[in-house]
Amino acid sequence: MTDPNPCRIIGVLDDGVASLTPTALAYIRQADVIIGAERTLALFDGQFKPGARTFDLTGQLKAVPGWVETAREAGQSCVVLATGDPLCFGIAPYLAARLCTQALEILPNVSTLQLACARLGMAWQDVPFLSIHAKDAGPWQRGAPPSHGLYRLAQAVHAHDRLLVLTSPDNTPARIAELLRIEGLADAVQMAVAENLLQPDEHVHAQLSVDEAAGMTFAPLNVVALWRIQPRDNPVLMGREDESYFQRRPKGDGTGGLIPKQEVRAVSLARLQLRADSIVWDIGAGSGSVGLEAARLCRHGHVFAIEKNAADVDIIRQNHDAFGVANYTLVHDRAPSGMQAWPDPDAVFVGGSGGELAELIRLILRRLRPGGHLVMNFVTLENLATALETLKALAGDAGKTAADAEKTSADAEKPAADAASPARAGSQTSPAHEPALASSPSVSEAYSATLDIHPASRPGTGTLHWDVLQLQAARSKPILHMNRLAAENPVWLVSACWQQTGDE
Asked: Are strands 78-83 and 7-12 parallel, antiparallel or unpaired?
């Protein structure tokens, strides 16, 4: 049923009356109540009928639905003036979500994005666009969290060949140019800026380098276009070669980098059960390899990494620069310092604990979202035993001691030895065959137990599941003019998942 007195949301442009159809202009001239930003209302000075009331919505967005409802209840005709197309980063979706859609009639105009493309001769049907008309969060900093006003832009410039951007007085074209510099794209991207569209002082800067734009001042009302002048990389999402990473090499000959091997990274990432929008914690980030590959996989999510070693932090930053991802935040500190400010994770990887393993496991399981996964890598039986004992204690399994855990851990080496896969570096090499990844079953049986952890943010009980997997890669290496298999040290992967089952 058609509403006899709808609120009309009318798109206008900066040339005011000239931008409107006769019908839209008539609605404005006949309205009892006119709502719009101060600048937009000024475009129609002298066009309102005598006695009409105007409301400035600048800084008063939450009040607009009430103003509309009051006018309609009084039987008054009401219009809301919006810029361009009210459904494109405009007020129309906001009002539609709070008022009956039948009570609204939307009269769109040409979008300023469309106008900018017309000035540049740019086909825009397949160009992504976004708005950075957000609260000022300051200039972009590499690794800033999702709350930063330029975060979505930083992600988009890596993901698209062309981009249209609605700016704000704070998030200016010059600030966009500086972001491109920080993200290593100064030579890869060209810019255009369309200022004051449809005004007498309209000006279009059709081709600007990033360095040129960074040093210029533009009118507050503008639209920015970005396009690639260098081909965008098509990187491997996961499983990069170990040698492609910067890494610490403790051996004097430059070999033996301290990095989770490719096979271990692949299995660890698989067990994290990542989704495109996952929030990931990387604790004891080391070289950053696991967290950075997770950032590529979770393109709509974010990775928070922490590393206490200053030399490793420098290495992570080098790898971050090479990866070209914006959804990655690195903290130089000792876990769990500062982690209370991170959002609850969907997945957590622990590559190093700094001696705080038991505390970290408890913290993680209290913060892990239901259905989330914790994956820990260990190369020593001592840390493995600590992890298992902590999990059992949290699950209320007091029947097994740390000594029991260490014993079962030691027993897990037997299947690998029986299969002729050495359990220690320096053992005899495996029989000559194709390089393989050998794995044993769990260190002990998989566990499933009721867990009552009562996190402050999410009270209730749940079920804790965990298991242990031993991985050992035998890699082909040239020995005596032949390729023979040489075994790497075993790595134990402890995987845990917490499923919420009830509320208090």
From this structure: parallel
Instruction: Name the DSSP class of 103.
Output: G
Contact 282, 351 (CB under 8 A): yes
User: Using 50, 70 and 90 to split pLDDT, how confident is the model at 256?
Assistant: low
Q: What is the DSSP letter of 387?
A: H
The contacts of residue 126 (CB under 8 Å, 6+ apart) are none
In 3D space, the residue among 443, 440, 464 whose CA is nearest the CA of residue 453 turns out to be: 464
Could you report how far apart the first and last alpha carbons of the chain are, in Å?
46
Of 46, 18, 23, 22, whose CA–CA distance to 34 is shortest?
A: 46
List Cα–Cα distances, 354 to 359, 390, 391, in angstroms.
Answer: 11, 16, 18
359 in Cβ contact with 336 (< 8 Å):
yes
Q: Is 137 exposed, middle or buried (0-12, 13-18, 19+ CB in 10 A)?
A: middle
Give the residue from 469, 275, 456, 461 showing the smallest Cα distance to 372: 275
For residue 442, report the phi and psi dihedrals to the nearest 5 degrees: -60, 150
User: How does pLDDT run across 315-359, given as a tens digit for each residue?
Assistant: 999 999 999 899 999 999 999 999 999 999 999 999 988 788 999
Distance between CA atoms of 310 and 306, rounded to whole angstroms? 11
Q: Which domains does the chain have, with CATH numbers?
A: 7-110 (3.40.1010.10), 114-228 (3.30.950.10), 242-246+256-502 (3.40.50.150)
Q: Mind listing the pLDDT tens digit for each residue in 6-29?
A: 999 999 999 999 999 999 999 999
Contact 80, 9 (CB under 8 A): yes
Q: What is the distance between the alpha carbons of residues 273 and 8, in angstroms, rounded to a whole number?
A: 47
Is 475 in contact with 486 (CB distance < 8 Å)? yes
Specify the pTM. Answer: 0.81
Residue 393 has, within 13 A of its CA and on its CB side, a CA count of: 13
DSSP-assigned letter for residue 86: T
